[in-house]
Design a protein that fits this description.
This protein is an all-alpha fold and 227 residues long. It has 9 helices and no strands. The longest helix is centred in the last third of the chain and has 23 residues. The two termini are 14 Å apart. The N terminus is likely disordered.
């Protein structure tokens, strides 16, 4: 994805609904029977950022895949989330700290068994760009997922917004391609930005407890691309 701090920031608020994060907190308190499904959603969102983070520590592809699987298997275990507390920070912060502790534990275990981890720092490059971070990987995944949903919902608007982001196609060219006027293309671009923002916020709401936190996560997403 391109580094574009002008990604949509407008749009209407949507009332905050019970989320996967709510289910996670209930699971922590032993009162949620759908914890596995809730955790599965978070695994889907965070698997790649965790995997890329592990790769950047120098592990090769296969070791990184195995460690990522082991990490999330551990997260799915009973009482694994007993220390999760929204008051202590975002779930993403908790997750990254957990990954770091997990890697330290695994390193100690392997050394105890005389198994040196396979490290290849030249091979272990992030997928999206050199110098990436866990935050940027997370933001990229969220944005990629949002664009995929936008393409499913309104493919014409998604085409306009993607063309606008890349800057490779003019409004005049888009108008000819889509059989519309340039004025209509501008309207599509405006609607696409609002719709994309709404999609992103809906995804972010799954991992926070309040609408304010969701807005803060949206700002964090923008900062990740501008850093």
């Amino acid at each position: 994805m391109t580094n574009d701090p002008e990604t949509p920031i407008g749009g209407e608020r949507i009332s905050f609904q019970p989320t996967v994060w709510t289910q996670i907190l209930r699971a922590r308190d032993g009162s949620e029977t759908t914890a596995v499904a809730a955790l599965g959603h978070l695994v889907d969102l965070y698997w790649k950022p965790v995997y890329f983070h592990i790769r950047r520590q120098g592990y090769n592809i296969e070791d990184a895949k195995d460690l990522t699987q082991q990490f999330f298997a551990r997260i799915m275990e009973p009482n694994a989330l007993k220390n999760v507390d929204p008051a202590k920070g975002k779930f993403r912060t908790f997750l990254l700290a957990s990954v770091r502790h997990f890697l330290c534990d695994e390193y100690d275990k392997r050394n105890a068994l005389k198994r040196t981890p396979t490290l290849d720092f030249e091979e272990a490059q992030p997928q999206y760009q050199e110098g990436s971070t866990f935050e940027r990987d997370w933001a990229t995944i969220v944005l990629d997922r949002a664009f995929a949903k936008l393409r499913e919902q309104t493919p014409r608007e998604a085409r306009v917004l993607e063309a606008q982001r890349t800057g490779k196609t003019s409004y005049r060219e888009l108008a000819e391609e889509l059989g519309a006027t340039e004025a209509n293309i501008k309207v599509m671009a405006h609607r696409a930005k609002k719709r994309l923002r709404a999609i992103i916020l809906q995804d972010l709401r799954e991992t926070v407890s309040t609408e304010k936190d969701a807005e803060e996560e949206l700002n964090a997403l923008f900062r990740a691309f501008s850093a």
